[in-house]
Amino acid sequence: MAPHAEDKTEKPSQQEVRTKIHRNKARKGAHHIGNSLAHTRFGNGWLVGVIVVAAIASLFSAPFFNSGLRYAARSFLELHDDPAVKQEHTSMEQTNATVAQPSQGLTADYVCKHGYSIRILNQDPLVLYLKDFLQEGEAEHIMALAEPHLYRSPVGHQNGYSEHRTSYTASLQRAQTSIIRCVEERAAHFVDTPLDSVEMLQVIRYEAGQQYKIHRDYITEDILETDYWGQYGQRYASFLVYLQEPEGGGNTTFFDVGLSIPPRKNDGIFWLNVTPEGLEDKRTNHAGEPILAGQKWAINIWPHKWTEHFRQTFRWKGWASNQPAPTRYYATDNAAPTYT
Ligand SMILES: O=C(O)CCC(=O)C(=O)O
Ligand SMILES: [Fe+2]
């Protein structure tokens, strides 16, 4: 038997226990709780044993613990201001996001993470491909929430229906579920725009024969003041994220750019609707091509900013001169999307 187990010295007074707890606390940091419990219940012999074991354990665990902390601090300090990498960080607000309804396509272990990869499709105007923008299960969740609320899509500011746009639409409430909040936040982080300047997610569903002919997403200068969404500033960028692929057709086509992107579930595209000066960029006019078979589902996410704010904070020159160079890059091992 180990000598310390036979040690029958007198039990310490409450004051002594408190003092020792205090000393242990100072000396051993996180180990003090376990030590003090051992002390009061089992006497000094056990205490010495537990302290020895804890001290040895802490010697082994400290380097890992410290390097973890250092890593967290370093990545926060170096990366948190960098919009190109910001979305990789799981949001502090969202780490408890566990809404999981089997009927809504989610598993119980859902956690909000932002881990997609990016590829440049076109430099000017900027069009990006967002590979796996949605996590597994998010598309099904969004479709299940939207389906009961779908109505014939209106066209632009006219609030009317037109053969120009024959799809169905449902707007989700902001932060309707923690998953919706996670997706809103993913987009907001990407463009470094406050969450309340991002429109609620607009779900769209097309069936065979339905389409959205060539149109613009930006708000023209003449109605910027009067348009409902214009009050939040220009829709300076668009995310279009695909929830379900049709069996044929349904490409998103930028005629002037010469890009036609086939919808792929969970992937998305992002483009800037305005020039670096914040002026509407007509080259970004685009269409959702007719569906040949099956259904296509997607979401529009539109960030806004007051034009002046946009000009001051989002200009490439300002960003390049004020921010440290990115220290991390995204994986590029995804197969390139195919274009028709
Ligand atoms: O469905 C598409 O591919 C395009 C949709 C679109 O551009 C829109 O809803 O504004
Ligand atoms: Fe559009």
Secondary-structure blueprint:
Layout (H helix, E strand, L loop, with lengths): L2 H4 L7 H15 L3 H11 L1 H36 L3 H4 L30 E6 L4 E5 L6 H9 L4 E2 L15 E4 L6 H14 L10 E5 L5 E4 L21 E8 L3 E2 L2 E3 L4 E3 L6 E5 L13 E3 L2 E3 L2 E6 L5 H7 L2 H7 L18
Antiparallel strand pairs: 1-2, 2-11, 3-4, 4-5, 5-14, 6-12, 7-11, 7-14, 8-13, 9-10, 9-12
The chain binds 2-oxoglutaric acid and fe (ii) ion (FE2).
The site of fe (ii) ion has 3 residues, from loops.
Description:
Keywords: Dioxygenase, Iron, Membrane, Metal-binding, Oxidoreductase, Transmembrane, Transmembrane helix. This protein is α+β, with helices and mostly antiparallel strands and 340 residues long. The chain folds into 2 domains: 3-79, no CATH class; 83-322, q2cbj1_9rhob like domain (Jelly Rolls, Sandwich), CATH 2.60.120. It has helices spanning 3-6, 14-28, 32-42, 44-79, 83-86, 138-146, 178-191, 307-313, 316-322, and strands at 117-122, 127-131, 151-152, 168-171, 202-206, 212-215, 237-244, 248-249, 252-254, 259-261, 268-272, 286-288, 291-293, 296-301. The strands form 3 sheets. It has an 8-stranded antiparallel sheet. The chain has a 4-stranded antiparallel sheet with strand order 6-12-9-10, with no helix packed on it. A two-stranded antiparallel sheet has the order 8-13. Strand 1 (117-122) and strand 2 (127-131) form a beta hairpin. Helix 2 (14-28) runs antiparallel to helix 3. The termini are far apart. Mean pLDDT is 70; it is low at 1-43, 58-103 and 314-340. Fe (ii) ion binds at residues 215, 217, 286.
